[in-house]
Amino acid sequence: MSLPSDAFRHVASRPHEPLRTFHPRRAPLGRDREDALARLWPRFGFSVHDDAHGPMPRTPDGMLDVRALFGRDAPLVLEIGSGMGETTAAMAAVDRGRDYLALEAHLPGVANLLGLVEELGLTNVRVGHGDALDLVRRALPEGSLDAVHVFFPDPWPKARHHKRRLVQPAHVALLRSRLRVGGTLHCATDWVHYAEQMLEVLTADPGLANTAVGFVPRPAHRPVTKFEQRGLDLGHEVRDVVVRRVR
Ligand SMILES: C[S@@+](CC[C@H](N)C(=O)[O-])C[C@H]1O[C@@H](n2cnc3c(N)ncnc32)[C@H](O)[C@@H]1O
């Protein structure tokens, strides 16, 4: 099995594929992350798109075999766009009863999280490299998630790029269908316009109910990441929305 250098690039650029919600980036891994990838990918990582680069375990009907992936049955938290993985690692470390599936399109982020998994001795984290929406659509069954986390998704601030935003009605309906009834979808952003859009889209979905009136106060269990700190340094205000699947 080879490592996932560009495992999803050719797939994501096919013209008939849905629009990407992420910027394809090429960034050097650096020695530590290359090392983390070489040692830890076979145990904790898998490729969303390319079976040659760490196939994901599948059930006979082609779905992601979560039980084989984690080696147990536990409530599953999906994090979309885990970035460098600081939030995933910190939340999973104090929530060992649930399993955390982090999905990230940017390989250095995947490698960084693998390093954190080792450093903190986490057994309840697995990391998928590639387009999270693609995996959710094709390989996660309805009602299989306890929670979905979408923290600081790419803001796509230009109006002509808003169609690339992760939080939009079709994606929210998809994520809601994969949550169990009672499961939560938690989104956060430091872009005012995106925050308003999140609140509007998440509360407009008939299967979701807001857990607060408007935004929720910043939950203490969500650590501040570099992305968030960069926004705060620019004077941005951070907003969290948490909705629950009700039907
Ligand atoms: C602005 S960063 C925030 C990272 C992290 N959540 C944090 O708070 O620090 C957004 C991340 O989402 C990833 N991303 C966006 N769309 C994605 C998708 N469809 N599948 C996987 N990752 C995605 C990007 O590669 C990027 O690393």
From TrEMBL:
CDD domains: AdoMet_MTases. Pathway: tRNA modification; N(7)-methylguanine-tRNA biosynthesis. InterPro entries: SAM-dependent_MTases_sf, tRNA_(Gua-N-7)_MeTrfase_Trmb, tRNA_methyltr_TrmB_bact. One of its GO terms (cellular component) is tRNA methyltransferase complex. S-adenosyl-L-methionine binds at residues 79, 104, 131, 154. Substrate binds at residues 158, 190, 225-228. It is an enzyme of class 2 (transferase). Signal peptide: none annotated. PANTHER family: 3-DEOXY-D-MANNO-OCTULOSONIC-ACID TRANSFERASE/TRNA GUANINE-N 7 - -METHYLTRANSFERASE, PENTACOTRIPEPTIDE-REPEAT REGION OF PRORP DOMAIN-CONTAINING PROTEIN. Belongs to the class I-like SAM-binding methyltransferase superfamily. TrmB family. Catalyzes the formation of N(7)-methylguanine at position 46 (m7G46) in tRNA. NCBIfam families: tRNA (guanosine(46)-N7)-methyltransferase TrmB. This is tRNA (guanine-N(7)-)-methyltransferase.
